[in-house]
Amino acid sequence: MRFPIINSIYRKEIREVLRDKRMLYLVILMPFFLYPVLFTLMGKVGANSRDKINTETIDVVINSEAEGSELAGILTEDSTLNITYATLESNERDSLSGKKLYVKLPTAAELERLNADSNAVVAVAIYGDDGEDIVGNRRRRITEKMEAYGKRVTYERLRVRGLGPDFVKPVNVFQQDTASERSVAGRLLGTMIPVMLLLFIFIGCIYIAIDTTAGEKERRTLQTIYTTPVSTNEIIAGKFLAVATVGLVSAFANLSSLLLSMRLQVSMMSDGNGPSPFSLSLGGADILWIILLVILATIFLAALSMGVVLLANSYKEAQGYVTPLMMIVLIPAIIAGMPGMELTMSTAMIPMFNLCLAMSDIFSGTYSISLIGVTALFALFYGLFGLWIAGRTFGNESVVTGEKVDFKNLFSGR
Amino acid sequence: MSYTIEARGLQKKFGDFTAVHDVSFGLESGEIFGLLGPNGAGKTTTLRMLSGLLKPTSGEAFVSETSVQQEPTKALAHLGFLTGDMDLYRRLKPEELLTFFGELYQTPKAELKARVSYLMKAFDINDFADRHCEKLSTGQKQRVGIARTLVHDPQVVVLDEPTTGLDIMASEFVLQFIQKVAKQDGKTVLFSTHNLTEVERLCDRIGIVDRGRLVYLGTVADLLAQTGHQSLAESFFHLVGGSTKVEI
Fold it and tell me: CA neighbours within 13 Å on the CB side: how many for A288?
């Protein structure tokens, strides 16, 4: 293979990509606009919903008998509760709808008995349409006030008997997460980043692969290049490098924009407690392993994309292959993120699945070099196998002449 | 006798179907050769075998006495190939496209620059040099396509139906180009066509292919004498078993 020839083909493909506005938008510009806008919007909508939930005015109907009682007074103090008094019959309670709640409180006399008699119990009933209160927020706002009152009564009863609050809570459970901050962050990011990386590499690869293979077949420009003194391997190498470059750029652009947007979002919403998923710090060796795995994933996905879409005779037909291919790539990656999945000698052999598990282990800092090495070897094998398949497909006479590909003779060559 | 391009017993089978049967001919420098035949006769398949796009089932093709099948890189360096339906790289400008193909032929940098400059001037490409190929008219695309075929100064030019789909002006440009490269520059031109007027005007010799077989090889004058007809069309139909008469 002659490097200057490969370089010429590579530069030509990259030049065409850089002039393709759709491709540029999809691969580079979209991520830098999409994610910040998406996350800002999500943040704003989330914050607005949260504020709305906590401050929305609720219509509360309290039974008339409880008017003037201490509990009714507690609810009346809350300015977000619009209190009215009425005693509803059972059929009226059952037909409550909208944002209205009916709270049946004990009367003032019952509450007096509660405070005087340490064995006395009173009931509070809340009625409302749960379909209108999906997150249960409205009931919660009432319940919290009632429970706080009940706690005060309990502590007072204990105080009268010379007992402290621990009397009713003899066992205190103490919990501590001994996982390092990196491990926590790694678990959070380690399941998400590999899937995202593979998806972005694939998206970057697939569209340029379609344009440089099926697109060229359709336009018959592939035939032109085959009449020059250039070998099939040189053509594949040049095109493959271009596809892989775009895949890597796409992954880098998407991931950096995504992480940056998420980081900004988290820092805006964070209360400062607990480890942040972005407090992840990776060592030099970890970064090198991840770069190696990303490169191997790119080799495989670029080769797979080229080999498959080359079977299509037109750009449109090739687009029909995108969704099934994406499923092949993403399903193992998603399964790898499920609980209980571990990188072992067996799972290190499964394409895509192995890369996700390996990257996840590296992020959480709990990886075995030998298993990562085995993963890398298998990933390299699959990448080279994919390239070999792409090479055989490229060498097929039907592909060269732009005719319909005969699957029986797919690997027959020219 | 040394041929610049030669078909030696070319045969091509697609499954059970034999598209080309034992086709042999050789062309010399400065010769214009027309390959005629009805649709599906095997013209394109023959040209594709000669240009290395298809591998013959048996037989061999030679360009500048080098086997296309055995040493494709060496043989194809002397060949320029163009078909009527070949498009150009849409997002390249004509100069970039010519330079790209020159690089594929490993033309030295300075020589390539001079060659591209010469072709752009010779084919009046400078007038639309700043436009991407997708923005060019059919005639302009044809000029760039032909310049691309010549960028490495090949000894042999193979054109598969080069005037198909072109208007009169663009067709005339192609015909003049064929005349010039053969008679002034001494290159061998092999082209396939359905247009018998083009053949009578340009070709030193012709080959007629019918159902994959080369049924005639020689000059137009010899063909007329051999068949006893007055026109090439009548002689052509005489050979391929058709008729010039149409009953309505």
Answer: 5
Q: Which residues of A touch B13 (CB under 8 A)?
A: none
Could you please report the per-residue DSSP string of B103-126? HHTT--HHHHHHHHHHHHHHTT-G
pLDDT in tens, A35-65: 778 777 877 887 787 777 777 788 899 999 9
Residue B91's closest chain A neighbor by CA?
Answer: A16
CB contact under 8 A, A400 and B55: no
Q: Is B28 on the interface with A (CB under 8 A)?
A: no
Q: Which domains can be identified in chain A, with CATH numbers?
A: 3-36+183-412 (no CATH), 56-168 (3.40.190)
Pairing of strands B66-67, B213-218: unpaired
Letter for the amino acid at B241? G
Which residue does chain B place closest to A21, by CA atoms? B91
Range from A44-48, A148-152, A214-218 carrying the lowest mean pLDDT? A44-48
- List, in order, residues 6 or more apart from B209 with CB less than 8 Å away: B20, B23, B35, B36, B37, B41, B42, B43, B46, B215
> From the list A19, A220, A229, which residue is nearest B76 (CB)?
A229
- For residue A410, count other CB atoms closer than 10 A to its CB: 16
Are A224 and B148 within 8 A, CB to CB? Answer: yes
Query: Over 70: is that where the pLDDT of B244 sits?
Result: no
Q: Which residues of A touch B (CB under 8 A)?
A: 2, 4-5, 8-9, 12, 15-16, 19-20, 219-221, 223-231, 397, 400-401, 413-414
The whole model's pTM is what? 0.78
Lowest mean pLDDT among A269-278, A284-293, B132-141, B171-180: A269-278
Contacts of B86 in chain A (CB under 8 A): 220-221, 223-224
Range with the lowest mean pLDDT among A393-397, B16-20, B24-28, B236-240? Answer: A393-397
A414/B54 CB distance under 8 A: yes
Gap between the Cα atoms of A314 and A202, Å rounded: 20
> What part of B 109-168 touches A (C-beta under 8 Å)?
132, 148
Closest-approach residue (CA) in chain B for A5: B104
Instruction: Give the closest of A4, A19, A227 to B81, CB-based.
Output: A227
DSSP B195: -
Cα–Cα distance, B107 to B173 (Å, whole number): 26
CA dihedral sign, ordered B55, B59, B60, B61: negative
Task: Say whether B87 and A12 touch across the interface (CB within 8 A).
Answer: no
The gap from C-alpha B104 to its chain's centroid, in whole angstroms, comes to 20
Q: What is the pLDDT of residues B88-111, one digit of tens each?
A: 898 999 999 999 999 999 999 999
B247 touches chain A (CB under 8 A): no
How many CB pairs below 8 Å do chains A and B form together?
A: 80
- The set of residues, in sequence order, having a beta carbon less than 8 Å from that of B53 and lying 6+ positions away, is A223, A226, A227, A397, A400, A401, A414
Q: How many Å is the Cα radius of gyration of chain A?
A: 32
B140-168 per-position pLDDT tens digit: 888 899 899 989 989 999 988 888 777 78
Nearest to A228 by CA among A13, A2, A409: A2
Q: Where are the alpha helices (DSSP H) in A270-368?
A: 284-309, 315-319, 322-336, 353-364
Tokens 């409302």 belong to A128
